[in-house]
Design a protein that fits this description.
Blueprint: E1 2-7, H1 32-44, E2 48-53, H2 61-71, E3 75-79, H3 85-98, E4 103-107, H4 109-113, H5 115-119, E5 126-128, H6 133-141, H7 146-149, E6 155-159, E7 162-165, E8 201-204, E9 207-208, E10 227-228, H8 231-243, E11 248-251, H9 260-273, E12 278-283, H10 290-298, E13 301-309, H11 313-318, H12 325-337, E14 341-348, H13 355-368, E15 372-377, H14 385-393, H15 400-406, H16 423-438, H17 441-450, H18 454-468
Helix pairs in contact: 1-6, 2-3, 8-9, 9-10, 13-16
Amino acid sequence: MNVLLINPPKENEITGTLPSELTEERGFSPPLGLLYIAGYLLQHTDYKINVLDSQVEKLSYDDIKVRIREIKPDVIGITAMTVTMLDVIETVRIVKEVDNKIKIVLGGPHVYLFPEETIDLEDIDFLVLGEGEEVFKRLLDNIDNKSELIKIPGLVFKDKDKIINTGFSNPIVDLDDLSFPARKLLPYKKYNSLLAKGNVVTTVFTSRGCPYQCSFCDRPHLGKAFRARSPKNVVDELEECTEMGIHDFLIYDDTFTVDKQRVIKICKEIIKRKLNIAWNIRARVDTVDEEVIKNLKSAGCQGIHYGVEAGTEKILKVLRKNITLSQVKNTFFLTKKYKISILAYFMLGNPSEDRNDIMATFKIMRDLNPDYVHIAILTPFPGTEIYFNGLRDGYIKNDYWRDFAKNPISGFVLPFWNENFTRDELNALLIKGYKSFYMRPVYIIKRLLELRSFKEMWKKSMAGLKIFIMK
């Protein structure tokens, strides 16, 4: 069997807030979900596996058609996120246009949230719910045998006009059993990041599942149970990457530092093997202490991304962050003490938030003085507590995400929480926040003094220019 896995383009991605090019992580990240599936299939089957990342290769739909004709796949798997569904549907259309006999399988958070709505869309043959490695392999093994497919948890498909949903598969307990992502199936040297020290970057998952209860965030397809890879297994993957010429990493766990002792063991293993790497992590301010930060620094960690979100205790409680501003200040102090770069995330337009709250967020943003900030307007995403609360309390008038899932059409704009602000007011505040942070003379001088090359100067100058001309 010939299998092609596709990360679709983002030509029609649903957007509603202004991204910061200076801190943008998306677009630099290989599609790890597809690469995990590819690695699993290579280990456990004799199927021919190809992976196509339309984004990093900057492929048009016509380019994708050419690739499909060259590869001649029997089955195509596509990553489906709600905000990229228009591109998913267009990718599906051109696949069937090339060869109507190709079976199309969708996976990802969108199909987990909206299985019935998705399988009802034209030309989609199967859905994989949740973690896809084992389920997708079993689907391929039995793809023409519906009597066997109904026995496999985690599948949705149609039998004539009847929707068959076999329920959810159990989460994978031992992540060490999974193969490493099959990075060599992609032009992996094309991935880079403005925040990385080197030229070639990759992302890494060392765990799955987030045990925290933030009301604005949900990763339903991975679950809430925290499952972690062993320190040896994690560093084995890092070492494999260094042998490929990759020395910069973004650890893409929702919260890398859930288990402090595991973090310290990973650091010690990196040091033991003398790996020459630079890496960034995502963490909560209440999951690190000086011992953890000291070990991270010793092992080559050069950046930590913290979700602060708001500048008042009031809004932090609304978002169920379960952190305090005192914890934020203390953690930022410790991180700076060990000269680790900080990227801080903030959000505007939260429930009950007024202009004074937002001004307090801008003030603490400047007072904390991280190396970079990423500011976003709150989007009530499907499956989140905030979205359900908005429907319940009348701030969200109709279940627009489900409506969009039933009929994905162009022109859909990301919604916002319209309790106290209009969309234009939030956009204006977003620009004000970025400029109030990045356009400070003291900040600009500091960044200029830290430049290491003309290439870095050019990239960061272009990012800074985009912020300067925001209006």
